[in-house]
């Protein structure tokens, strides 16, 4: 927890956790303001959780959510009104503290000299030059005046962004590259399934962003607010402007926790959990163990409409949980329900027979066409919308002792409202070259692109070298055009020690990487489990993120 002093009445900080509240109260703070929308990232608690802990500690808590980089004058006024009514001193927080600082600055524009506002922010480590330009330019940011310019700008320092940067530098050492990402931590998200299954310690899935980004890349720790592709410019949180010659867009996607009524109020409590969040995956394992201690109960696992990140992950959580109950000889006392908004168990038919074997082995009840609509944690009930054959909808209420939720997912807000988006809000690219369909110097890959492949780290591993080659070809530093074939992989953990290794291309064409005598992906195997547990994490950290394109060299058309 890094608290930064702005004035005698206000300090700001990056995202806090409920476990920080006691220490915050001990430092004398009497009120909190949350400026970060729920569901903005995969690693932070919702406001309801913070508010509950704050009240228990005697602190007031207010919620004024603001999208990154989109602080309005009205929100600045609202922040000032909150400050006027709250007991002092106040701690305001968002992802980094920048939004809170920006709103404070706007609220003080008529009450404090501008140099003093900028000075207070600078002393706390925040650069408000962009806000100054906004105030003196009628609320508009002149993109003609850039804070910085780079040859290649990459949006997102996750799996895709880091891999692209490393692949570019492996081909062209010394290339001027900037990665824009406000996060301090880089997560190996495929490992969270094994955290929820009691196999991995969550700490091994997280490393500092500074330790992961390739040497020589400039890291701009800020959030993107908007794109101006006609001006080759990116607008950042705080209204700063970064210009580029080539742009690579790969910020991941947004987990829309708020789309399910009541979910934010009960996540991490009342048996409601999700392996899609770093801090909740350990709770999944605790709930599996708790159900074992109870000796009976109902476990409900959900899957929302596509597209989602790693379409097999909802099932992985279910199979590993069921396997644990089987090992403890209480599986027959657990009612396992899988509520899937889709119409099939898995999108590639070749792998369904192996999965159905485990569905039957564990006695799992399949409920297709059911979408989670609301959750009442204290009551232990979840309401689903069920699609009827005649096109109508019905409601189904299910009781639970454990509820594993996978939230609906969509492109980040700054992508959906940008010129880069297609009608559904995803970055609109050619599925083979990953170049934008309208802006030739813009590329996109990973979860935010509108390609039809599975949204997995394995897909990003194959996409990154394609983008790296095509960026350099556009710059005249490489020959030919690299193509991505839609490869995706999903190691389906059907039991502890057994994995069905699904690998496929565009159109669901099966594409195994290994000979059948070693790993037959259509059957569960110990070898595939060892690959998932021991090989893939090292391949991720030491291969993919370092530009080593093992088994990922792209096909290049002359």
Automatic annotation (TrEMBL):
Superkingdom of the organism of origin: Bacteria
Pfam family, one: Pyr_redox_2
Keywords from the named record: Transferase
Classification via SUPFAM superfamilies: FAD/NAD(P)-binding domain
PANTHER family (UniProt xref): SULFIDE:QUINONE OXIDOREDUCTASE, SULFIDE:QUINONE OXIDOREDUCTASE, MITOCHONDRIAL
InterPro entries on file: BLH_phosphatase-like, FAD/NAD-bd_sf, FAD/NAD-binding_dom, Prot-tyrosine_phosphatase-like, Sulphide_quinone_reductase
Gene3D superfamilies the record matches: FAD/NAD(P)-binding domain (3.50.50.60), Protein tyrosine phosphatase superfamily (3.90.190.10)
Organism (species): Cupriavidus basilensis
Designated name of the protein: TIGR01244 family sulfur transferase
Domain Beta-lactamase hydrolase-like protein phosphatase-like: 3-109
Domain FAD/NAD(P)-binding: 151-266
A GO molecular-function annotation: transferase activity
């Amino acid at each position: 927890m890094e608290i930064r002093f702005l004035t005698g009445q206000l300090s700001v900080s990056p995202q806090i956790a409920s476990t920080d509240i006691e220490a915050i109260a001990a430092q004398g703070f009497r009120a909190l303001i949350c400026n970060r929308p729920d569901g903005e990232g995969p690693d932070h608690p919702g406001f309801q959780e913070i508010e509950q802990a704050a009240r228990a500690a005697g602190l007031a808590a207010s919620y004024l959510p603001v999208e990154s980089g989109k602080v309005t004058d009205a929100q600045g006024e609202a922040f000032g009104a909150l400050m006027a009514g709250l007991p002092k001193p106040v701690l305001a927080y968002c992802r980094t503290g920048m939004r809170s600082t920006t709103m404070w600055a706007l609220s003080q524009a008529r009450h404090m000299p501008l140099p003093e506002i900028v000075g207070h922010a600078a002393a706390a480590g925040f650069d408000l030059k962009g806000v100054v330009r906004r105030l003196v330019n009628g609320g508009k940011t002149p993109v003609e005046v850039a804070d910085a310019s780079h040859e290649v700008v990459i949006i997102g320092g996750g799996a895709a962004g880091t891999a692209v940067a490393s692949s570019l530098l492996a081909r062209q050492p010394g290339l001027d590259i900037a990665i824009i990402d406000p996060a301090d931590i880089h997560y190996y998200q495929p490992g969270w399934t094994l955290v929820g299954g009691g196999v991995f310690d969550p700490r091994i899935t997280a490393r500092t962003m500074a330790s992961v980004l390739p040497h020589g890349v400039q890291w701009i720790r800020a959030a993107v607010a908007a794109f101006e592709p006609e001006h080759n410019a990116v607008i950042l949180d705080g209204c700063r402007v970064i210009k580029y010659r080539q742009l690579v867009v790969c910020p991941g996607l947004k987990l829309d926790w708020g789309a399910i009524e009541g979910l934010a109020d009960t996540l991490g409590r009342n048996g409601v959990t999700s392996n899609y969040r770093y801090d909740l995956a350990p709770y999944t394992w605790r709930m599996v163990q708790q159900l074992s201690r109870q000796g009976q109960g109902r476990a409900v696992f959900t899957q929302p409409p596509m597209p989602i990140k790693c379409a097999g992950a909802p099932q992985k959580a279910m199979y590993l949980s069921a396997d644990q109950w089987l090992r403890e000889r209480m599986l027959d006392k657990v009612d396992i329900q899988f509520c899937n908004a889709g119409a099939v168990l898995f999108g590639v038919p070749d792998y369904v027979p192996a999965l159905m074997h485990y569905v039957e082995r564990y006695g799992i009840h399949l409920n297709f066409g059911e979408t989670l609509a609301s959750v009442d944690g204290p009551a232990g009930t979840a309401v689903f919308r069920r699609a009827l054959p005649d096109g109508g909808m019905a409601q189904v209420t299910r009781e639970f002792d454990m509820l594993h939720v996978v939230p609906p997912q969509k492109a980040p807000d700054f992508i959906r409202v940008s010129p880069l988006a297609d009608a559904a809000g995803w970055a609109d690219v050619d599925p083979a070259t990953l170049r934008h369909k309208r802006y030739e110097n813009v590329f996109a890959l990973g979860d935010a692109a509108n390609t039809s492949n599975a949204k997995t780290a394995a897909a990003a591993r194959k996409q990154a070298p394609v983008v790296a080659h095509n960026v350099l070809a556009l710059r005249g530093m490489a020959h030919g055009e690299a193509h991505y074939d839609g490869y995706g992989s999903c190691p389906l953990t059907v039991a502890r020690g057994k994995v069905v290794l699904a690998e496929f291309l565009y159109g669901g064409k099966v594409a195994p990487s290994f000979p059948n005598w070693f790993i037959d992906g259509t059957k569960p195997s110990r070898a595939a489990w060892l690959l998932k547990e021991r090989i893939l994490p090292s391949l991720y950290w030491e291969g993919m993120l370092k530009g080593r394109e093992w088994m990922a060299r792209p096909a290049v058309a002359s």
